[in-house]
Design brief:
Shape: globular
Number of strands: 11
Structural class: mainly beta
Helix content: 10-25%
CATH class: Mainly Beta
Radius of gyration: 15 Å
Number of domains: 1
Strand content: 35-45%
Length: 160
Amino acid sequence: MGQPQCRHESLVLFRIEGQRYALRLEAVERVIRAVAVTPVADAPADILGLVNVHGTVIPILDIRGVFDVPRRAMAPTDLLIIAGAGQRKVAIPVEEVSGVAEPAPGAAVPPGDILPGLGAFIEGAVTLEDGLVLIYDLERFLRENGSFLFDEVSKPGAPA
């Protein structure tokens, strides 16, 4: 399997612990304020619980571990990025969403060109006018980590 390719696309910029990251705009459905979380017994460590967004039950995915940021409980001031790939949706808690960026063609660099083994779920990095941003590969994460929770939660009538 070849090295992932960074594409020129619009990016949604967000912050976790003061550091900026990005998701491809095409993966983002909406951004909402933090809401009540339903805990799930025996859930994988990356799942903080479930939320009901307009009748759809969605797992909350903690991506802090991907970026080597200490885990913490969700704060009432957090935002949830509702995003997905294919049929799977997740809510990603972040401290801030700062907008959409349009990187220049060729600005994105694959992770292997920066540092081999940078992170299995880092699609690459892009240099914007105000600094470097790591791009999170949500599609790859969901494809490679299809835990029971994602499959069960996506079923109609799953408990909220």
